[in-house]
Amino acid sequence: MSSTINQNNLINDVVIDVGDSITASGALSYVDKSIRRINRKLNLSGNSAVAINASGVITAPNDNVIDILALQIECLIVKTNQANTVSKGIKIKSGDDSVDTTASFGGYKAVVNSVCGELNKAINRYRYNASESDLVDSGKVIWYGDQRGYWEDEDYYDTRKNFDSEFDDGTEQD
User: Whole-model pTM?
Assistant: First the structure.
């Protein structure tokens, strides 16, 4: 069953998370690009793809994908903010000595790594927990303990692959 959210409500959630670094109208410019990226990263197409209509209503396969879309928007915003800030770095020169202040912008890199890292964890968790209906080409999942393989047709069986995730510690994630 698909989920929907108005883009303005999604953007309000994003603005709350990223704070004063962007306005709601500025964040709206990231929606289309984020939808394209999430569709590509999660291999969503056709009726299962994230889409936005002319009224600004976003439709996604489920609430998890809407959360991932919000994280994608936040990641793009903090990456843009970092690039803008670092590009405006100041070099102070006095005789033969100089100081490049762009090194002090390392905190921005930590923010980008944190926000975009959360996005990557959410994407990996979503892929890891994909159900049969989420699989491309309607493949069947065959479990072998902590491993799974895909039965795509009668004549082809993909060998077992380890799908352990470094993010899966056996506890439920929020």
Answer: 0.65
